[in-house]
Amino acid sequence: MFGLNTEEKVSVMNDYMEEIPSAPKVGDTIEGTIASRDKSSIYIDLSPFGTGIIYGREYIIARDLIKKLHIGDSVTSTIVDVKSKNGYIELSLREVKQAMVWEEVNNAIEAKTPIELPVLDANKGGLLFQWQGLQGFLPASQLSTNHYPRVEDGDKNRILDELRRYIGEKFVVTIIGATQEDGKLVFSEKHSGGEESESKKVESYTVGDVLEGEVTGVVEFGVFVKIEENLEGLVHISELDWALVDDPKKLFSVGDKTKVKVIEIKDGRFHFQSRD
Prior knowledge:
Elements: H1 6-19, E1 29-37, E2 41-45, E3 51-55, H2 56-61, H3 63-66, E4 74-81, E5 89-92, H4 94-111, E6 115-118, E7 121-123, E8 126-131, E9 134-139, H5 156-164, E10 170-179, E11 184-188, H6 194-203, E12 210-219, E13 222-228, E14 231-236, E15 257-266, E16 269-274
Parallel strand pairs: 3-5, 9-11, 14-16
Antiparallel strand pairs: 1-2, 1-4, 2-3, 4-5, 6-10, 7-8, 8-9, 10-11, 12-13, 12-15, 13-14, 15-16
């Protein structure tokens, strides 16, 4: 710095100090290159700060992401500890993994991607699922015709009993909503492709049509009749016979063939009158 005045020396020193990277600290995000890996750890070159390591719990949490990484790949991670016992900078890929999962969620919503998932539990409002580590809920209103609870007067306890029958069963659903703040998804069975084709089938029928179908369910308040695959409707107890009927099971059994007349089509659902 010979030949420079004091003000010029200060300026040069400030420029030099700005070029020196600050030492990383816990919580910082940092970019590096994968240098090596073994069965339970991955090592990342963080020059000029040294070598980072992802291991233990952090490795397990991100193992599905780590499987996709290769030597030489650039990766952004979060610093967990700047002085681990092995002398490495301990890193986490949780934030990266979460960002990738939410990107996948958004892509699935946009593409209306069908996803097959087992029902984990049920409550009075619908069914509970899990996808990519995220909790999901399918409201009863988003169930297909085949799975919608057949409960008279909307008794919530009986609806819950009906929904619990599906625990363990696999459903094909789509994601129709998501809130990243609390990590929750909203599913629909109606938007998985089958419901759309059902709607088109329903449009091919009109009030007054007389059809032949098969009894698929007999309950206190009436009989469910299937007229074609994934398409059925209800014959209310008041429409079963000209005479007063007190127990539909005295007239019909599951598997019976019967004729019905379409008396109403509402919200994509049939209401029939018995013609037998």
